[in-house]
């Protein structure tokens, strides 16, 4: 019988030595305060399932690309997708990226069960984290145990993407203080091969549409690990959206990544699929049926469903309902962004439960899409809802 995942190894007694080595490589948050964020074991995925996962991601990436082009310019749908109105003019006026690269830095999150069933939970096409874990830590950890990592090309794909985008600055909130976001920015910059300046988003200011840092340094091209939907909420968000719209600054990922980011896009794709829309080819309809979950703008499912904010992150806002339609569990740690954004309702597909040395955990399988290419597995192990308390575990691939 097919078993997709196998947990390999036992935690090494010299954890601190390995934590220090990972820090030297650029992964400085393997331990968070007194908690172990990194699980010192390896999850091996069966080769045929990995191959299918790549094909699924490739097909769904094309589906989502078409969906964004369908949405562009339709303000009724912008509102339905809970996209802040302050972004609408920019979405209408700016040109879309080439096919397949509306976002060059994205990650699908899947549930993959032990029998090889693959279902998409969501797409983070704007500001995914986990890049350092996937591109730096996973290959090293797999190599240490003699296993194959499919993640080794991630840095080359980032370099290719930023050769095209050519940002001069990279930014996140609390750069130099927030370990994960700072480390992510530093790794992306290093892998890009570009000479770039890293800044804190909170140090930026805008003068009649011109984005500046310091007294007079002008920023005209920037990669920002800053969720675009927050321009509808944050002080200064309207000024930044105006700067983007008027092209005083080019932001990467580009503005249209916010359409991909909205979980409402999954509901729209599902509706178009049920209507047998000619927007998608027969093969794309097959991929939607096989790998996407029925998702709706209103609570149409009577039981076994998930409710979550269209712009929720790190598990915040997620609620799981049982077969009787009763609330079973909700995320109590992450910020519930549904106070700002509408919810979607998605058929429930639970994460597989695996046994680790420190207990059982549910595995979320992330797969990056860099420069339009599916690549880079990211394992997150935690509760039924993958939130801030989840841990990183490297995923390798079993060789035949």
UniProtKB/TrEMBL annotation:
Gene3D superfamilies: 3.30.1490.330. It holds the Pfam family GSP_synth. Keywords: ATP-binding, Ligase, Magnesium, Metal-binding, Nucleotide-binding. Residues 20-395 form the Glutathionylspermidine synthase pre-ATP-grasp-like domain. SUPFAM superfamilies: Glutathione synthetase ATP-binding domain-like. GO terms for molecular function: ATP binding; ligase activity; metal ion binding. This is Glutathionylspermidine synthase.
């Amino acid at each position: 019988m097919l078993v997709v995942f196998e947990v390999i190894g036992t935690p090494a007694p010299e954890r601190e030595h390995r934590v220090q080595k990972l820090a030297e490589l650029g992964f400085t948050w393997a331990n968070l305060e007194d908690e172990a964020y990194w699980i010192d074991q390896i999850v091996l995925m069966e080769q045929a399932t990995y191959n299918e996962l790549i094909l699924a991601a490739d097909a769904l990436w094309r589906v989502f690309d078409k969906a964004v082009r369908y949405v562009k310019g339709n303000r009724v749908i912008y509102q339905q997708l809970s996209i802040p109105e302050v972004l609408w003019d920019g979405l209408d006026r700016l040109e879309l990226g080439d096919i397949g690269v509306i976002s060059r830095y994205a990650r699908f999150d899947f549930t993959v069960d032990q029998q090889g069933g693959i279902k998409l939970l969501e797409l983070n096409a704007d500001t995914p984290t986990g890049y350092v874990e996937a591109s730096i830590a996973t290959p090293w950890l797999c190599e240490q145990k003699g296993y194959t990592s499919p993640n080794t090309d991630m840095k080359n794909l980032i370099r290719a993407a930023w050769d095209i985008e050519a940002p001069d600055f990279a930014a996140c909130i609390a750069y130099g203080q927030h370990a994960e976001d700072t480390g992510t920015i530093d790794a992306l910059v290093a892998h890009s091969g570009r000479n770039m300046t890293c800044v804190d988003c909170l140090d930026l200011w805008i003068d009649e549409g011109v984005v500046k840092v310091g007294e007079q340094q002008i920023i005209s091209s920037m990669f920002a690990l800053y969720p675009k939907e927050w321009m509808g909420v944050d002080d200064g968000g309207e000024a930044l959206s105006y700067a983007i719209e008027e092209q005083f600054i080019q932001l990467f990922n580009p503005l249209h990544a916010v359409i991909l980011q909205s979980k409402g896009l999954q509901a729209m794709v599902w509706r178009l699929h049920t209507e047998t829309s000619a927007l998608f080819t027969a093969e794309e309809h097959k991929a939607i049926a096989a790998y996407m979950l029925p998702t709706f703008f209103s609570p149409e499912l009577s039981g076994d469903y998930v409710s979550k904010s269209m712009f929720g992150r790190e598990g915040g806002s997620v609620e799981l309902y049982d077969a009787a339609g009763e609330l079973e569990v909700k995320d109590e740690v992450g910020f519930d962004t549904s106070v700002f954004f509408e919810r979607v309702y998605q058929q429930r597909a639970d994460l597989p439960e695996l046994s680790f040395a420190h207990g059982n955990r549910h595995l979320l399988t992330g797969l990056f899409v860099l420069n339009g290419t599916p690549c880079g597995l990211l394992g997150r192990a935690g509760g039924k809802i993958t939130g801030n308390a989840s841990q990183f575990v490297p995923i390798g691939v079993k060789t035949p």
